[in-house]
């Protein structure tokens, strides 16, 4: 009986983690922007409010703002509505670099 109960608990814990995309809490946007190398090639998720939406032919992005900052999210999916609360899974990427200026973006991944 204890084994069945323990197994059930572990399955529920695992499914809850899968629902979030990954185990743990969302990455603060400020940390992603301040130290993008720490998150290089690591799948993470962010959570916040959609602040801006842009689409022009093949270029689609939106910005997500949390209590720590705001980041551009590049996507190939249908764009969310401005003001929508959203969770996004993806990876940090450097869009371009000119001199000492860089643009760090978040590339959304499909489920």
Keyphrases for this structure?
2 helices; OB fold (Dihydrolipoamide Acetyltransferase, E2P); alpha+beta; 111 residues; globular; 5-stranded mixed barrel; 42% strand
Can you characterise this structure?
With 111 residues, this protein is α+β, with helices and mostly antiparallel strands. The protein has one domain: Nucleic acid-binding proteins (OB fold (Dihydrolipoamide Acetyltransferase, E2P)). Helices cover 23% and strands 42% of the residues. It has helices at residues 2-20, 29-34, and strands at residues 44-56, 59-65, 70-74, 85-98, 101-108. Strands 1-2-3-5-4 form a five-stranded mixed β-barrel. The longest helix has 19 residues, at 2-20. The chain is globular. The mean pLDDT is 84.
Helix/strand layout:
Elements: H1 2-20, H2 29-34, E1 44-56, E2 59-65, E3 70-74, E4 85-98, E5 101-108
Parallel strand pairs: 3-5
Antiparallel strand pairs: 1-2, 1-4, 2-3, 4-5
Structural class, from helix and strand content?
alpha+beta
Encode the helix/strand succession as letters.
HHEEEEE
Number of helical stretches of at least 4 residues: 2
Task: Estimate nothing, just give the exact number of structural domains.
Answer: 1
Task: Compose a concise summary of this entry.
With 111 residues, the protein is α+β, with helices and mostly antiparallel strands. It has two helices and five strands.
């Amino acid at each position: 009986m204890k084994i069945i109960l323990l197994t059930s608990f572990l399955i529920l814990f695992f499914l809850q983690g899968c629902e979030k995309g990954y185990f743990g809490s969302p990455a603060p946007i400020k940390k992603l922007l301040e130290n993008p190398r720490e998150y290089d090639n690591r799948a993470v998720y962010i959570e916040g409010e959609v602040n801006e939406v842009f689409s022009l032919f093949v270029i689609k992005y939106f910005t997500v703002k949390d209590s720590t900052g705001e980041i551009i999210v590049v996507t190939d999916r249908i764009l969310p509505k401005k003001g929508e609360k959203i969770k996004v899974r993806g990876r940090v990427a450097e869009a371009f670099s000119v001199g000492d200026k860089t643009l760090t973006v978040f590339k959304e991944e499909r489920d």
